[in-house]
């Protein structure tokens, strides 16, 4: 509008990485080859540990081992064995034989693997007030994490989260062991199911190393595997940096964000189909138009968040694993693909709202929500966080239905995790210096 003071044009900070990965070499080719050879030996030792555990009758030990391998980031080496073990656990569940911790762990592992186990398994643990909790901090953490693998209408899991979130918050006011305090803090910020796998692997390697019950073979293999992947990533980033510089985007496309390293971290691809949605957003900006409600906003802005394009690019990269029917299904925008878009779009808007008020910007879901309900920014943010939680339940619901190959469904879930991570505290893609420490731990600093 003519009467409105024109906002300053938006500018972006330069990349914090520059040409760093052109010259950074975590190890020589001969060192990498030697590391891979030693890791192969350790991998076989870990597989033998897993097979011996599978052959035992100790169910709790089996579940703890699977949980450890998944958290420490090496489960993909034993995917077939783990899948078979968890299928056996699912088929043989005796609901009357477990304590709360092991019930929670089993429920979490099975749902995380796509098994639609009923939340009724928690009913027997209700107290006289109808609540489910524990005085043991480790059990409380497992229960809280398990409840977050919920779908719509699971009141018992909703109650577990509401009741035990307060209990976990109260634990933070007490003097806890440093490792336990870190786990409580991490869980309150991001439940385990929603964490980015490689970031969690780096964190958990350090935590596992401090455990008295650690298995040195598993720990050593996890470190080797992490460092091997880091070397591979660095080589990819070197090649991508050369390609990026050849495009001269910094000089020719100054309106873009120089975030090649962050894009590698995000595993994001942008394709031409986003152009129509971006055009609609530009029109909103130029005409100072605010959508009448959040749903109207999301119809456009979810497409411009390129989540569906990222998902389909990932699907195509799997080669023959993905069929034409899979791609056609993805373009129907099912809830498991729509959900990550909502998580990313709204998370981005919440963390960017204050900063974007100082520049010429496209109206956000925050402003649409404020207009729809006549509420403040803070109240709008709370309403939008409810929509994010509902999106997570949509994702898990379709994940458990298993209408497509699990490898495809897992891609969508991983994208939601990455979106959640990138916009947890701030817009880490735009304000990439805040992400620098995490990227350094992933690509630069070995374990």
Task: Walk me through this protein's architecture.
The protein folds into 2 domains: 29-226, Glycosyltransferase (Alpha/alpha barrel); 260-428, Farnesyl Diphosphate Synthase (Orthogonal Bundle). Residues 1-9 and 268-280 have low confidence and may be disordered. The protein is globular and about 65 Å long. It starts with 19 loop residues before the first helix and ends with a helix. It is an all-alpha fold and 447 residues long. 65% of the residues lie in helices and 0% in strands.
Average of the residue pLDDT scores: 85
What are the segments in which pLDDT stays under 50 over at least 5 consecutive residues? Answer: 1-9, 268-280
The rounded distance between the terminal residues' Cα atoms is 55 Å
**CATH classification class of the largest domain:** Mainly Alpha
Strand proportion, as a percent range, falls in under 5%
CATH homologous group name of the largest domain:
Terpene synthase, N-terminal domain
Share of residues in helices? 55-70%
Domain Terpene synthase N-terminal: 17-187
GO molecular function: metal ion binding
Keywords: Metal-binding
Domain Terpene synthase metal-binding: 273-394
